[in-house]
Design brief:
This protein is an alpha+beta fold. The protein is built from seven helices and 13 strands.
């Protein structure tokens, strides 16, 4: 799918996904990802952002520290990542379970999809580190490795803020060798990334707020650092097996 594909005038609902099921699954199987601009409309997005701010304020202080990461541990304003949000809050559980996101997972995977994780991602301005090239399936340890990760922008994200990049079609070539990276939250990266095929097939995905990209667990992807001085890079993520 691309910017040229038909898109709804408001938030995508399950009926819309059902109508376009065949086309969405074809794109996912062929390219390893789907791009759905405007997956969430402005009103719904505003509500989600408000609830995310509430979650950070009220829930994070009581959440296990193993599930909350900061770029600088002593500075709450450098929040980098939150894990398992749907397990601690009804609002985010409703976004995870029996939701358009879960239905999209079923459409792409071609079978029932089990909820596994809901995350908040951020790259604070100036200090948000790059995300190393990796395949999510390396962390999942699934046989067969058939799962989906979704990433939805909560604000406009340009390349200089660290947008997501894919190696198109890389999900068809199996798991690459990974090794330690030293990056908090992304401890494993592809050891031999950067061959001619990787670079030739690389695609950047700057997004507007409310856009969603979803990729197969074997898809190679990465993101740059946030080199801006005044813009964060906030998103929500969903994982379904």
């Amino acid at each position: 799918m691309s910017e040229q594909n038909e898109k709804p005038s408001k938030s995508i609902d399950i009926a819309w996904l059902d109508k376009h099921e065949e086309r969405i699954r074809h794109s996912f199987n062929l390219n390893g990802y789907v791009y759905l601009p405007g997956f969430v409309g402005a009103d719904d997005l505003e509500k989600i952002v408000q609830e995310k701010d509430r979650y950070v304020r009220d829930v994070v202080p009581n959440q296990p520290t193993s599930e909350v990461y900061y770029e600088i541990k002593e500075r709450p304003d450098t929040l980098k990542q939150i894990q398992q949000m749907y397990r601690y809050d009804d609002f985010f559980r409703d976004l995870m379970i029996d939701s358009p996101w879960q239905r999209l997972a079923e459409v792409c995977l071609g079978q029932a999809a089990d909820a596994k994780n809901m995350q908040h991602f951020n790259k604070p301005p100036g200090i948000g580190q790059g995300t190393p090239p990796h395949q999510d399936g390396y962390y999942f340890h699934l046989k067969p490795n058939h799962a989906i990760t979704m990433w939805m922008a909560l604000e406009d994200v340009e390349p200089e803020q660290g947008c997501v990049n894919y190696v198109q079609g890389s999900h068809r070539y199996g798991m690459r060798a990974h090794g330690r990276t030293g990056t908090l939250g992304f401890s494993q990266g592809i050891l031999d990334f950067g061959c001619e095929h990787d670079l030739r097939q690389a695609m950047a995905f700057p997004c507007r707020a409310g856009d969603l990209i979803a990729h197969h667990s074997l898809m190679i992807h990465w993101a740059g650092a946030n080199t801006t001085s005044d813009r964060s890079r906030q998103a929500l993520g969903w994982i379904y097996y």
